[in-house]
Amino acid sequence: MSVSSSAGSVHVRAPGKINVYLGVGGRHDDGYHALATVFQAVSLYEDVIASPASDFSITVSGVDDPDTVPLDDRNLAMRAAKLLAAAADYDGGVALEIRKSVPVAGGMGGGSADAAAALVACDALWGTGFSQARLHELAARLGADVPFALHGGTAVGTGRGDQLNPALARGRFDWVLVASDEGLSTPLVYERLDALRDEEGAFADDPPLSLDVPVPVLQALRSGDAEELAASLFNDLQAAATDVRPDLDEMIGLGVRAGALQGIVSGSGPTVALLCADPESAQQVQAALRESRIESLHVHGPVPGARILS
Ligand code: C5P
Fold this sequence. Notes:
The chain is α+β, with helices and mostly antiparallel strands and 310 residues long. It has two domains: 10-167, Ribosomal Protein S5, domain 2; 173-301, GHMP kinase, C-terminal domain (Alpha-Beta Plaits), CATH 3.30.70. It is 35% helix and 27% strand. The protein has ten helices and twelve strands. The protein has helices at 76-88, 110-125, 132-142, 146-151, 186-200, 215-223, 226-232, 237-244, 247-257, 279-291; strands spanning 10-27, 33-53, 56-61, 93-99, 154-158, 163-166, 173-178, 234-235, 262-265, 272-276, 297-301, 307-308. Strand 5 (154-158) and strand 6 (163-166) form a beta hairpin. Mean pLDDT is 94; it is low at 1-6.
């Protein structure tokens, strides 16, 4: 990342993600849960334009309700810019313009994509020249999903989800996404999972703090076979998300009846991701959903991580 920047702006694009597999283990002392997950970056992007400024500011477009995105230090992109400035001993600021396409609080890592894009954009704007490894380390401090938004493609995440290993994925997978008007809080969904497990007595004595991704998931990705992947889609957070929002289960059922191979709650939800056999099938699923007045988006994965466009 060695674009020098004296004057102009830097435009970076980072993708949203779907967890095609998400196994959640016990809770560590720091409150985070052990994860074994497989991320796939999909063609729904956040754009961040970083321009020179003496202090730090953010503007956001592309959201229906501006109140859902904070413009201060609660915004992960703002925190990313400030973290990079501190790490690089940079004493200027930046004006960040965020153009959102990934649903807010939708379980697709939109905020994490903003943070990853802000890191890459500010690194270029300020001529910081940090290595990918250093940016990854800063990303992991910002949130569990931020390293993946830098990385992109398809990857296995362990630890808190921030320790990444690339996974081989052949071909392309077509997804139809159904977003919700109202977001879901990620901490709330994890809390609900803990409560459900407590009720069942599961994991009470022996919470596993390290987990593996099942081999069939990795095999399905390697073969590029959507039907195989559909059979191994799994998300431990789904039970918790649908406990809060039972309509998500209904949406998955509707998607499958409309012709999707399988559906899953994306991350902590509430976005539902419907895996389809091919682009034509995805269009048919969209058309069938439209008849029930349900708007959806057709995306594909895998796609690259945070990249400088100009
Ligand atoms: O890291 P991030 O800010 O995305 O995480 C949001 C919240 O999700 C955490 O504060 C925590 O409550 C929950 N979380 C978790 N275990 C993980 C990742 C996230 O409990 N591995």
